Amino acid sequence: MQAMEKRMVKLSVNGDDYEFAVKPNRTLLEALNDNLGLTGTRYGCGTGECGACTVLIDGEPKQACLMLAISAEGKNIRTVEGLSDGEGLHPVQRAFVEHGALQCGFCTPGFVMKAVALLQENPHPTEEEIRHYLRGNLCRCTGYAKIVKAIADVAR
């Protein structure tokens, strides 16, 4: 079996440009974690069902486990590490902490990224709209109530 040749890929992640070699079958999630050391984007299921790997691609929430790194070239990628302005937490991150909307924290980055996308699209969502938007993001530790309250608090 012949080894797969690596290809150069240029990614714009959190406002910084990177260029590195990847195998064509390498997912964006693997490239973010292994090549760039951005481990906030989590591997959960590997099938796009849990939302733990959610990142923003050109402002839209996408599962990084389902996208090849080479397919992300030319796109603006934002991970949970890119939310902070360097001075402090993003308002959504701060609300998650204040409302206890995280327990083990494994799914939190995906929920935070999805919430950021929702609030960019709809700055004043109802509780029903928040719950609907978060479908596809799974948490095994909470009952989602604190997550929804945290997002609703930011929307106020």
Secondary-structure topology with pairs:
Elements: E1 7-13, E2 16-22, H1 28-35, E3 54-57, E4 60-63, E5 76-78, H2 91-98, H3 108-121, H4 127-133, H5 145-155
Parallel strand pairs: 1-5
Antiparallel strand pairs: 1-2, 3-4, 3-5
Helix pairs in contact: 2-5
Word description of this protein:
The chain has two domains: 7-82, Beta-grasp domain (Ubiquitin-like (UB roll), Roll), CATH 3.10.20.30; 91-155, Orthogonal Bundle (DNA polymerase, domain 1). It contains five helices and five strands; from the N terminus they run E-E-H-E-E-E-H-H-H-H. The protein is an alpha+beta fold and 156 residues long. The radius of gyration is 16 Å and the shape is elongated. A five-stranded mixed β-sheet has the order 2-1-5-3-4, with helices on both faces. A hairpin with a 2-residue loop joins strand 3 and strand 4. 38% of the residues are buried. The model has no long low-confidence stretch (mean pLDDT 94).
Structure in a nutshell:
The chain has 156 residues and is of the alpha+beta class.
